[in-house]
Amino acid sequence: MGRIAIMQYEWPLQSHTLNFVRALLERGHQVDLFSCRCPSQLVDCESLEARPAFRHIRIGSSVGDRWEKLRGIIYRTFRLTLGRVSFEPLLLPVLPVSLRYAREQRYDFAIGVEKSGAIWASLLHRLTGIPFVYFSLELYDEHHPYYFERAGFPAWRRAEARAHRRARATIIQDRQRGDHLCRANALDNGELIYFPVSVSGAPILQKATFFREQFDIPREKRILLYLGLIDEPRGCLDVSRRAGSLPRDISLVFHGYGDSGVVEMVLSAAGGALTLSLDLVTEHELPQVVSSADIGLALYRRDCANDLLTAYSSEKVALYCRAGIPFIAFESESYRDLKEKYDCCELIDSADNLNQAITKIVERYEYYRANALNAYASLYRYELNVGGVIDRLNGLFNLDKEMHCGAVKE
What we know:
Blueprint: E1 3-9, H1 15-26, E2 30-36, H2 46-49, E3 54-59, H3 66-81, H4 95-105, E4 109-113, H5 114-128, E5 132-135, H6 153-166, E6 169-172, H7 175-184, E7 191-194, H8 210-215, E8 222-229, H9 236-241, E9 250-257, H10 260-269, E10 274-277, H11 286-290, E11 295-298, H12 305-308, H13 315-322, E12 327-330, H14 333-342, E13 345-348, H15 354-363, H16 365-380, H17 382-396
């Protein structure tokens, strides 16, 4: 049995972290999750916090406290000044608590989730010698359009690279993303543990009726679903402009969130041929929402590695495959690899090719559906992947060899 610390800082608590915590607990480990400014509205933290081998240490979460508000003002000022030069000092307020726990618990290793979590774990490593693993979810580097001009971003990236070079290993979704991250952080060699974004549960073989009941969509129409961030660089506006020219038996649905101005523009461009669903659901309800569609859209922006390399890092792709839903994605190296292995999708160069892709899927629907379910069983099922990752960690840190967790997927 190992004692493990997980650090997460200014990053929403999502299923990636919480499911991994559950898997560690099920295999006999004790886990302390340290979080600071990590919203958790759509996930179930309460069931985890009832388990005796788990502690959730929230730092700086006294919402409404006057001192907390004052401290927030000081923090933001500090971030806009010194934070432009060095990111590590911004984590000094969280170190005393985690350092106290580390000295009491004598953790076998720590896991830093995303950049700031890895920097936090690296600082703890420098003070205590506790080894750590970098759990990478996103490739936010100098070429990402949302980040490269943000104040303090260069300092954040430099701190990430320093932390990454101290990490004992990196958990990342696939080889392409791992190679990119190592190049970006000037890491010549390092142990990479591949962990595709995965979802839990048996395959969903029966269609749900969420959208048909919610929006009175006729049974004879197939539902084409766009899921997630509604954003112009992801092709949402281009797709909505073509909503009226889609095949007659196709009903286009957008379920997600986005800037109100962008959402309004997307809705207007569709000319009444788009159904818009903006009421977000919990992680437990989402699979049934997805399974009420017939064809999925997995469209991402095409100007940065984080979005180009998403075939094995997209939760919506995993959700589509779990429900046996063939999907359409933009052509990229990542999706070409997935299509060659499983042929569960059609690839397009632009929204101009959307009708052609829909027709191909509809003509051989059961073929694509079977392939999507096969991809889920072989690649995207959480229970299949997580055991191998934990096996690798157990071996890396010489933990109990009797905890058999299966074979790693690479």
